[in-house]
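$ run holo --ligand "magnesium ion" --emit tokens
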Amino acid sequence: MVNIDFKSGFVSIIGKPNVGKSTLMNRLIGEKLSIVTPKPQTTRMNIRGFYNSNIAQIIFLDTPGFLEPRYELHERMMRYITDSIKKSDVIIFLGDIADYPTEYDSKIISLLKILKTPVIGILNKIEMCSNSQIQEKKELLESNFLETFFISALKDNEFNDLISCIVKHLPICQPLYNQEDLSDMPIRFFAQEIIREKIFLSYGKEIPYSSTVVVEKWLEEEERDVIQANIWVERDSQKPIILGSGGVKIGEIRSKAEKDIMNITGRKAVLNLWVKVKHDWRKKNGALQEFGYK
Ligand code: GDP
Ligand code: MG
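-- output --
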């Protein structure tokens, strides 16, 4: 039966790197779709994740954090954010309660004020603060946004009030995507992201930012998926670091990623990883295109 009051629309989550945008989206849709690490700039593209209920479908766009572009890759990351804002019915601004408002937050907020799109202002990580600190930030946030929330994306058990607030601002519209789905992005993409997450979590400062992952082949066998993926790095010297002595490091990445891929596909996954070098790929248009940063 068609529900004539059904609501559906796009909601972008924006804010500076590391405030918990990906964590929040994962919690709102109830699945770990977007990768989360303690390092900034983990999310490189807009990740779409769907929240489905019998009254609404919310298409969340988890964006990379705004940053001053230093590479062509960064320029593209900025374009993803602008694109997401343009197509949004509602925008969520997310800040970290500990340092809100940073200069960075203020810049985003002044940009958002120009738009007609409804914006919900949220401060995250409140479990780290005392009540009086929260109270102090409350007034600051309320001076910028009509709708405000104070949350712990990590610790809160439910987000019903926030979901209701989002739905209130969505247009009446039949579901835009299949209501059984969690995303319209292909499983290959999520496998790449899972491998990238393991790299972010396993290596120090430079390697995560210098690498990207492309799934080359995905063979669906009767009992299992056999997946071949390339890890691309920027310099020859980075290759042995990724491999680790005797290939131990990459072996760890492989088994952790296989487990997470199995969690989303429900099938056994066998992952073959190759490390390859494309010099300075972050600065090269052709390479970025080839690696999926369209
Ligand atoms: P993003 O860059 O904005 O997408 O941030 P992430 O979702 O990747 O989170 C960055 C870091 O903040 C990760 O280590 C998260 O576990 C952590 N984090 C996210 N939400 C919370 C929260 O509510 N409380 C605390 N203490 N940490 C959080
Ligand atoms: Mg993120």
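-- notes --
The chain is about 35% helix and 25% strand.
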